[in-house]
Amino acid sequence: MEQKQTEPASLEEAIKKADAAKMLASIALVVAVLTFGYAAFQTETGGTTKQPAQPQAAPAGQKVSLAAVKDAFAKSTIRFGNPDAKLTVIEIADPSCPYCQVAGGKNSELNKMAGPRFTLVADGGTYVAPVPEFKNLLDKGEIAFAYVYYPGHGTGEVAMKALYCAHEQGKFWEAHDRIMSNTGFTLIESVKNDTARSGEFVEFLSGAVDTTLLKTCLAGGSYDGQLAIDKEIAVSLNAQGTPGFYLNETLYAGAYNYTDMEKTIRSAGIR
Q1: Contacts for 241 with CB less than 8 Å, ≥ 6 apart
Q2: CATH number assigned to the domain with residue range 58-267, chosen from the 4 options 3.30.559.30, 1.20.1250.20, 3.40.30.10, 3.40.50.300
Q3: Could you tell me if 200 and 187 are in contact, meaning their C-beta atoms sit under 8 angstroms apart?
Q4: Which residues, listed in sequence order, are joined to residue 91 by a DSSP beta bridge?
Q5: The pTM is what?
Q6: What are phi and psi of 208, to 5 degrees?
Q7: pLDDT means per 10 residues in the chain (271 residues)?
Q8: Which backbone phi and psi does 97 adopt, to 5 degrees?
Q9: Nearest alpha carbon to residue 185 among 92, 106, 263, 246
């Protein structure tokens, strides 16, 4: 009888412990998603398409010094515009980061997958991707802009080297817009950091850049060390993830809607 009474008690205790363990695991998962959500993926059932989780966006208004931003701009390899412009914008990015793709505005499929909040205006949503808007301001001569690599997702090294090489040709934006497309994102997820497959980016960017120069640049490892240099620049600005947008002293950490940034832009004297 004692054994029969002990077994149910032990079973009940084991169930309670298991439930408690599940609860702790669930809490840990929620914390992990909230902390690293914008760099995480959730694989869809029955397919290879990957869905980005909700990004963690730090509150706007987090400040760094303007001097630090200007210094970071001066040290950046990929930079455009007048360093004395009213507004200096630095994008901290990783081509393999899903929410960098979302902010890039060239991957409408991924934007839709990210949810209604990130569905582009052109697709019936309310999201205005910030990167194309900054490119417009840059073309008008109203801002200075720099693109700085930080391993926010960690598998975009070959793609980033291709962007450095394209910039060397004066073709950064042409290469950027292809790499930030759905096809480009799929290629990044396939190649990851395998330098032996860099030729796939050469082929993919055919027509946007001089592929002979791109192949030579990638094969020669011209920018292998630049990844670490860019990371140091990002760290100097206290960057901890991607995407991050520094608008002079103000950091927008996450794939913010451009409309949320407009107050800061206007305050810099840009209309």
Answers
A1: 36, 38, 39, 56, 150, 152, 253
A2: 3.40.30.10
A3: yes
A4: 147, 245
A5: 0.80
A6: -95, -30
A7: 40 46 39 34 36 54 88 98 97 97 98 96 98 98 98 95 98 98 98 97 98 97 96 95 96 96 96 85
A8: -80, 120
A9: 106
